[in-house]
Structures are given as structure tokens and as C-alpha cells.
Amino acid sequence: MTTLQLIVPNMACSACSDTITKAIQALDPAATVQADPQTKQVEIDTQASETAIRQAIAMAGYTISN
Predict the structure, then answer these.
(1) Mean pLDDT for the stretch of residues 50-58
(2) Phi first, then psi: what are they for 21, rounded to 5°?
(3) What is the per-residue pLDDT for 66?
(4) Is residue 65 part of a domain?
(5) Do the domain assignments include residue 64?
(6) Distance between CA atoms of residues 59 and 57, nearest Å
(7) pTM
(8) What residues make up the domain containing 12?
(9) CA distance 38 to 30
(10) CATH code where residue 49 lies
(11) Radius of gyration of the chain (CA)
């Protein structure tokens, strides 16, 4: 299990965080995701690679700044 902390500047609301969570869990159903639209921070505990997680977030229409 890997913990990733990513900054997603265009995550504006709880619907955005839900979309990001669903995109990550489609890739890794066992992943735990904490997405906070106020801090723009997404913390993910996952078995998937960081590259795959970044791609899933990008495919959902969001950018990652770190």
C-alpha cells in the first residue's frame, strides 16, 4: 500500500472530489481517498502505481500540480 499526496488545483467542490474518488476507485477498488476541495489536497492509499493514479485523475478532467 502506497500513500500519495497530490495537489489538484481545479478541484472546486465536493462533486469534484467525488469524481476524483470514483476515478481512483475504478482503478483500485480498495483505495481510500481523502479529497479536500478547500485545500486542493488529495490523499490516496492505494496498491496502484502513482503513474496510474495520476492518469486516472487526468482522465477525469483534473490537473495535478505536484
Answers:
(1) 97
(2) -60, -45
(3) 80
(4) no
(5) no
(6) 5
(7) 0.94
(8) 2-59
(9) 25
(10) 3.30.70.100
(11) 10
